[in-house]
Specification:
single chain; alpha/beta; Rossmann fold; six-stranded mixed sheet; four-stranded antiparallel sheet; 10 strands
Length: 281
């Protein structure tokens, strides 16, 4: 069991989380407009979304629709033009220590071993290292890398490096984990393995997750809900609950129901908005 270390510190596509208490993440009427030498560029438009405590939500959309921009706003790195973001009941106005982030690339520090790479956020936050060392070791066990704590990044495969990055994103016990296409650079077999691994880690930790992806099967496999954004400016055009049992295996992807969800989402990008697939069969 992981040790919890206390922190010091009315459209059918509205992105609504299931009822039952205050959402972990609340996004209300979010807009973002860039100013450039060619004029204003609207990246996000009136985007609203909620994520419940412990919910896994994927955000799917075409390239350039503002998915990564949304993540930067949620992490406090980029202020919106309009609207607001609230995490765990507090507005996001700057980078927060209760948010974990996993990027497309693992971005591990090559001169630090695996254990010390996991502990980087603790040093950055200027927290005492020793209370978190046990948690970092437990997270490495959770991601299956307990025997690689003293190894360096160049000694690890791409999938192993991303597992280190996931442990690093969780080490400070954040309220929510933001993941920006973390498996995009992996080969197909490693990506399948990492989907199962991430599901296992999420089921163990119970964290709320916002997962950015271009992959429809990946989104369906991992998610409780898949939220689809339009082409720029990005806005919510569909919010699809995924009614599949857990834990899911790669065999789940061969089920007709899984294929129905994928077909529904694919049609959003090819021939407009289709009928929602049946939620029970």
């Amino acid at each position: 069991m992981l040790v919890h270390t206390p922190d010091a510190d009315n459209s059918p596509a509205t992105g609504r989380a299931p009822s039952g208490g205050e959402p972990m993440l609340l996004i209300e009427s979010l807009d973002l407009t860039y100013r450039s030498s060619r004029g204003a560029v609207r990246a996000l438009e009136n985007l609203s979304l909620e994520i419940a405590q412990g919910e896994f939500v994927s955000v799917l959309g075409p390239s350039g629709c503002g998915k990564s921009t949304l993540l930067h706003i949620l992490s406090g790195l980029l202020p919106p033009t309009a609207g607001r973001v609230v995490i765990a009941g507090r507005p996001v106005v700057a980078p927060r220590q209760d948010v974990g982030i996993v990027f497309q690339q693992a971005t591990l520090l090559p001169w630090k071993n695996v254990l010390n790479n996991v502990l980087v956020p603790i040093r950055t936050m200027r927290r005492p290292i020793e209370p978190y060392r046990r948690r970092a070791q437990e997270l490495l066990t959770l991601v299956g890398l307990e025997d690689f704590a003293e190894h360096y990044p160049y000694e690890l495969s791409g999938g192993m490096q991303q597992r280190v990055a996931i442990a690093r994103g969780l080490v400070h016990d954040p309220d929510i984990l933001l993941m920006d296409e973390p498996f995009a650079a992996l080969d197909a077999m490693t990506r399948d393995f990492m989907m199962e691994e991430l599901q296992r880690i999420w089921l163990r930790t119970g964290k709320s997750v916002l997962f950015i992806t271009h992959s429809i099967p990946e989104a369906v496999f991992l998610s409780d809900r898949v939220v689809t954004l339009s082409a720029r400016p990005g806005r919510v055009i569909d919010d699809l609950p995924i009614d599949l049992g857990r834990p899911r295996t790669l065999d789940t992807m061969s089920q007709p129901k899984f294929g129905g969800y994928c077909a529904h989402l694919r049609a959003l990008f090819t021939k407009g908005r289709p009928e929602r697939p049946e939620q029970s069969r």
